[in-house]
Hydroxyethylthiazole kinase
Amino acid sequence: MFEKVFENIDRTIPLVHNITNYVTVNDVANMILACGGSPIMADDMAEVEEITSICNSLVINIGTLNDRTIHSMILAGKKANELGNPVILDPVGAGASKLRTNTVYELLNEVKFTVIRGNISEIKTVYAGSGSTQGVDASIEDLVTNHNLDEMIELAQRLSRRTGAVIAITGEIDIVADEKKVYMIRNGHEIMSKITGTGCMLTAVIGAYCGANKGDTLDSTAAAVSAMGLCGELAYEKLLKTNGGTSSFRTFLIDYMSVMNHSLLEKGSKIETR
Amino acid sequence: MFEKVFENIDRTIPLVHNITNYVTVNDVANMILACGGSPIMADDMAEVEEITSICNSLVINIGTLNDRTIHSMILAGKKANELGNPVILDPVGAGASKLRTNTVYELLNEVKFTVIRGNISEIKTVYAGSGSTQGVDASIEDLVTNHNLDEMIELAQRLSRRTGAVIAITGEIDIVADEKKVYMIRNGHEIMSKITGTGCMLTAVIGAYCGANKGDTLDSTAAAVSAMGLCGELAYEKLLKTNGGTSSFRTFLIDYMSVMNHSLLEKGSKIETR
Amino acid sequence: MFEKVFENIDRTIPLVHNITNYVTVNDVANMILACGGSPIMADDMAEVEEITSICNSLVINIGTLNDRTIHSMILAGKKANELGNPVILDPVGAGASKLRTNTVYELLNEVKFTVIRGNISEIKTVYAGSGSTQGVDASIEDLVTNHNLDEMIELAQRLSRRTGAVIAITGEIDIVADEKKVYMIRNGHEIMSKITGTGCMLTAVIGAYCGANKGDTLDSTAAAVSAMGLCGELAYEKLLKTNGGTSSFRTFLIDYMSVMNHSLLEKGSKIETR
């Protein structure tokens, strides 16, 4: 299904510029390497445009915002837009503070995003300037389940129409949508929420996949979401065999991404389209 | 012994606001998740008060101080005081530089702490504006052992009287004390000093436990200290079986916290009271 | 061969001051502990001189530069020079942006370095203000192989003559050289480039070894480079046995450094001199 996506990653080794938070940055760098890309982190205004210019894509993650990095995000985003490079937004904790919410709005005004990935409460905030965010995890009432799936798909497609971006809403069921097409992905395991950074790592993998597959954003994003979820399932199976806990799970999650390929994903992906 | 402490954590899933250092921040986030809480890291002045307001507790760790974050610590600390939320201080490296020592004094003047946790030389610095700190580890002459236990307990209780905080001094023997009662805890393993961040992680676990157990600070802190030490013992046993080294130990340490519960701690804790 | 180097580390437990990037800082701290040193991270202008003064060596890594930390690097570097402490430079990504390249030149003007370690494109940038840098990895055309070994040795020795520093160029073959003597080291495994931070970690180990072995910089650097490569080989062997991926490899890499000693290195090192 995603054979070409993987071929392009192997061929390109996409260089991904990350302006990201200091909590999960190491996992993000290792995950980009594991999925076949090459990471570069740079957040100073004096260099972000130059760094973006040598990269295949840009990932903006607002997990630990400060005044210095907000300006860098806008500068780098505009440059990536100018170059036609994919720009991915992870609105971590949008809704949890005015700073985060307003920064997301400022970014949406200044930068054209190729993909926006968040949990449902973050995506709601992006959409509406409303939505309840508890911490950086999806609020329990806000999980995407079979129950509210149609409503979430509608939200994703409306936001895609507004922004021109592919929208990825991750939760129990993951939705990847543009205006015309929707992927519903049922990979993943609930233990993924028991380590920090699975969202940030996924966004970075989307950045790598899209950086190597310009013009094929929807499929690249769906492939990344499904691959990440499948790695979570495989890592959980290995966890049980080794009597490990959440930190072993984190190790195995990155391990499986480092051996993921087209045929493994073909066998394990649980994707429907609409 | 600490059954209610664990029940409250499971029920509350305490959200812990961390203003912390960039060295161990990922371990801290994963450890908070492992112990049953939910972490949020935010250090910009523009959002710290708002973030603290949605959290159950605040952890201030001065491991990589800078001018920007010092102000955020004070703002967040005052807000948490106003809300009656527990505020935990980890005075990492206090005594190693004037910046750290003076920041600790400024924090003590501006913020009322619920718990202060450090090694003996850090706690001495907090107490006296003196004390020799080598790096961020306890100086060898300053380890809490059977030899100087009485003296250390007296120091802890005096500092508790001065500050109103529960004082946790960690070392070969851990002391957790308020004015009236003292726990002496003999869990732990010396290999814990061979990885970075065991102190920071413990302080964060204290933050989670206290956030879910307001009004039961002494017991919550003692439970956290004992649980962390027990995880260290179990992780070391597993290390021997797997022929691992210090990085495997780090993984196992977090693993064991993710499966820790009341009955495991009951069986393994080595606690005396005075 | 390096018996005395290891003896001095065990005896000194060198305290290493790191002004480094936030991507790999946790790995760097754990690797310093694993190799027998003690890390301290501090980057604020208000404390870096004081922190450097209590340390055995200083490691400057420009991986995530910003205006604030550049000044701190210069202040700390000058202080370490004044004290006669080894100062190690890791010019991460030099050549990738003007900020990085110019900062390296400014650092070289202001601070006398004891060791400079980078991949070939970084070292070329340091040497010539030119050189193509893709991301933070060595450009493929720029790997040190048997083919271009003589040329690289000449570059290293010229740069050593210009700067007075021991030069370590790491790649398929590692070169450690001063004006008079060259070590060629064939330890290591290609999977080391599939995790972030192997370069940063190596530079930090060099900082620890040199901090404990003042006046024996060339041998200390060669020992660190060989030990790191050997840990990579051993970690890869263990990876195969455990069906792991790149994140397990990272764990095992640090694990092996934590059990590395003189006799293990004696058996496994692949070093020639010229």
